[in-house]
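Checklist before submission:
- one chain only
- standard amino acids only
- sequence pasted in full

Submission:
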Amino acid sequence: MPIHIDFFHPSRLAIIVVRGVVTGEDITEGIRQMLTSGAMHYRKLIDISSPSSPMSEEDIERTAIFMRSQPNAASRGPVAFVMSPGKAADNAVKFAKMTEGERPVRVFHSLHEARKWLEQQPVGTL
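Returned file contents:
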């Protein structure tokens, strides 16, 4: 699977690494893992600095809609995307703008800056 998630429960942090070709189904499965783990309110560091193929606009919109439809959607924790410039970065910015009023979300090109920002964000509530 091109999406790997590590949960750090004591610090309420999920680190999500995306590599290779990612489909809408992969994204849905990753979200299901987050839901099953009870970690939707955690801070999330999403490293999409080297996917082989960026998501389509339809997948971005479908992901935002799917996230909003989940139970406790309002309790989602902050998200920091880490990426290199390019189409994937443009897509992350688009997703961030679509969902920024729902919880803190920012796009970074530096892992250090993303972690620093996330540490300053409160964890969501259940």
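Reviewer check: The first strand starts at residue 3 and ends at 8.
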